[in-house]
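Example 5.3 — Glycerophosphodiester phosphodiesterase family protein
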Amino acid sequence: MSFLTIGHRGMMGVEPENTLRSFVRAEHEGLDVIELDLHLSKDGALVVMHDADVDRTTDGAGPIAERTLAELRELDAGRGERIPVFEEVVEAVKAPLQAEIKDVAAAQALAEVMRSRDLVGRVDVISFHDEALAAIRTLLPGVRTALVGSRYGADVVDRAQAVGATMLSLNIRRLTLELVERAHAAHLKVVGWTVNTHDQLRLARGLGLDGVVTDQPEIRRAVRFTA
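Solution (predicted structure tokens):
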């Protein structure tokens, strides 16, 4: 199986994160998969942004959930980019996507878009929240999902199996060879984040990971020489 490179929020090491510019750059750099984050606007749009508020990544302030899409569109998300919605990303790039959902409400909205646009084969749904993954699988039978973990424990494999996930996306700083082997024995793929240096890439290879999430285009280039 090939070693996956996943563009974190597009290519956020060199472009404004979670913008169309960032996603297009990730595809141009040859990343295998592009990861993005979803929240719901006040009027129910699937807004592509990592944080629950706009403070860090735009020139605005306040929660996404308290603004309509039209109000969010007025903000500068970096280098003149506007905050995109999920449907625009689907049209802007052709690469497979990982869509991270923060809550069950976003799962409902995402399921509707994926069903109407026949995206089940192209989009994997990922989340830190077990209940959100369980919800999307109920809404979209057959969808591929991944459980994300930062401060996870040894039970993360069991949690992934319980919600029908096929992949774990885990903070590489906590990963052990034992956990990776246990996940593989349970037929789960394991990717590590965030891998931005050659040392981290060597660690990922040594752990036997199935791929990495990265901010940097040079990691994609380096993978070609470490296969």
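Remark. The CA atoms of residues 198 and 219 lie 7 Å apart.
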